[in-house]
Design goal:
By secondary structure, the protein is an alpha+beta fold. It has helices at about 15-25, 55-65, 65-75, and strands at about 1-10, 35-40, 45-55, 85-90. The protein has one domain (about 1-85): Alpha-Beta Plaits (2-Layer Sandwich), CATH 3.30.70.100. A four-stranded antiparallel β-sheet has the order 2-3-1-4.
Length: about 100
């Protein structure tokens, strides 16, 4: 598997809008998509980590380079106070295994 971990700073008061966007995106069928998790940090409720997994790097890159994903990203980015910090890489272990 392959994916990304991103640190995101949500604009104050925009958390519910971000949750609604996530619900809106749930029906989108993205080839190779496996899962997504969002962690809100205890230290700062506007500070989150996004974890996304794809079946493989090719599926991840194809999605990242798609116009549809760029549109989704721009909608999300409008709710963030800064650019996310992206950390892409191969997922070498998961539990339970996928």
């Amino acid at each position: 598997m392959y994916g990304t971990v991103a640190r995101m700073k949500i604009k104050p008061g925009a958390e519910e809008q971000l949750r609604q966007l996530s619900r809106d995106f749930e029906s989108v069928q993205i080839p190779g998509f496996v899962s997504q998790l969002v962690y809100r940090l205890d230290a700062d409720p506007n500070d989150c980590f996004l974890v996304v997994a794809f079946e493989n790097k090719d599926a991840y890159v194809a999605n990242a380079n798609s116009a549809e994903q760029n549109d989704r990203y721009q909608r999300i980015r409008a709710l963030l106070s800064a650019e996310p910090e992206w950390h892409d890489g191969e997922i070498v272990a998961s539990y339970p295994p996928h």
